[in-house]
């Protein structure tokens, strides 16, 4: 979370706009990105805007592109961090700026795909510099986390920064601690820092496509997706991460499903309970994603079912809106 941004890439009429594909999880964003990359006249390359596909070793549970997908279309910002490294909206924007410049230098179209709303906002609009970390305060908050539990700190965040609490899962301890650290150290909620627009106008010209589904259809898609991930070996993936000596407290383990499967492997939950909790948490996350993106300007919403049957309208739209 947080981190200041340089002015970075500014709108440039010499280049066609970047394409972004956003929306809730399980709506087919990655599949559409692949189709656009392969079928747009100039060809495209995909920049991952998911906050967790950057981590090496977290493959199945983050729906990371397969080796076959990576061979078909160049992808950027996938498998670039180890599980103990921190990632932020500011870091993403800087790395994505570099990837966009490289893709454009090859005469191809950057296609930014992902559901991390804050990361997309940081790239397209810029966010105000958030106060730097306060190690002493962070240590104090971690002590409280051990003594009082995550639920108590989440309730405190709801009182002092309801907007940030509303977009975080109650178990997302890393971001809860960071949000409390910001408001305690600066007196200004993290949500207010994020809403400040230091650039005054868009820093990056973009065509924004959003995929959506009726809520019942989306929830069913999430349940089927989790089941497929478990069948593909998600439990073994988590077991291998733990066998490497990685702590579940690391930033990468904030990914939904990993915490739940750790509890199963520690015999604190049955597998059925862990799967049920993962499905519920993913549905809540999808709801938060949709709430966020519905407030973002300029998104052209498409029915994911229609796009899955025929992506031609989306391709035509990107061509028509090309500058």
Helix tally?
15
- Rounded average pLDDT: 89
Largest sheet: 6 strands, parallel
Number of strands: 6
Q: How far is the first residue's CA from the last residue's CA?
A: 33 Å
Shape assignment: globular
Description:
- By secondary structure, the chain is α/β, with parallel strands linked by helices.
- The protein has 2 domains: 18-127 and 202-320, 3-Layer(aba) Sandwich (Rossmann fold); 135-195, Orthogonal Bundle (Histone, subunit A).
- It is 52% helix and 9% strand.
- It has 15 helices and 6 strands.
- It has a 6-stranded parallel beta sheet with strand order 3-2-4-1-5-6, sandwiched between helices.
- Helix 10 (215-232) packs across helix 13 and helix 11 (234-243) crosses helix 12 (258-265).
- The longest helix is centred in the last third of the chain and has 24 residues, at 271-294.
- Residues 1-13 have low confidence and may be disordered.
């Amino acid at each position: 979370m947080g981190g200041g941004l340089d002015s970075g890439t500014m709108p440039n009429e010499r280049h066609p706009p970047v394409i972004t594909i956003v929306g809730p999880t399980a709506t087919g964003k990655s599949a559409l990105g692949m189709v656009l990359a392969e079928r747009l006249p100039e060809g495209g390359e995909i920049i991952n805007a998911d906050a967790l596909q950057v981590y090496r070793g977290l493959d199945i549970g983050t729906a990371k592109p397969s080796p076959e997908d990576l061979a078909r279309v160049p992808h950027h910002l996938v498998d670039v961090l180890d599980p103990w490294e921190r990632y932020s909206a500011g870091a993403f924007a800087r790395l994505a700026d570099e990837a966009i410049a490289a893709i454009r230098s090859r005469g191809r179209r950057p296609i930014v795909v992902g559901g991390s709303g804050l990361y997309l906002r940081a790239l397209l609009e810029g966010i105000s510099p958030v106060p730097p970390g306060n190690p002493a305060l962070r240590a104090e908050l971690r002590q409280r986390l051990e003594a009082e539990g995550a639920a108590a700190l989440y309730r405190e965040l709801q009182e002092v920064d309801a907007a940030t609490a509303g977009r975080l899962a109650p178990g997302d301890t890393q971001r809860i601690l960071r949000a409390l650290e910001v408001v305690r150290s600066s007196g200004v909620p993290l949500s207010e820092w994020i809403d400040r627009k230091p650039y005054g106008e868009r820093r990056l010209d973009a065509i924004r496509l959003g995929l959506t589904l009726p809520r019942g259809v989306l929830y069913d898609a999430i349940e089927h997706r989790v089941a497929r991930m478990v069948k593909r070996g998600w439990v073994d993936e988590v077991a291998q991460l733990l066998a490497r000596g990685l702590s579940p407290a690391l930033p990468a383990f904030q990914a939904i499903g990993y915490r739940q499967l750790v509890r199963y492997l520690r015999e604190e939950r049955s597998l059925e309970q862990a799967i049920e909790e993962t499905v519920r948490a993913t549905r809540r996350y999808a709801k938060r994603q949709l709430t966020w993106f519905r407030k973002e300007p300029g998104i052209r919403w498409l029915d994911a079912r229609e796009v899955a049957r025929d992506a031609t309208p989306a391709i035509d739209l990107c061509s028509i809106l090309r500058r």
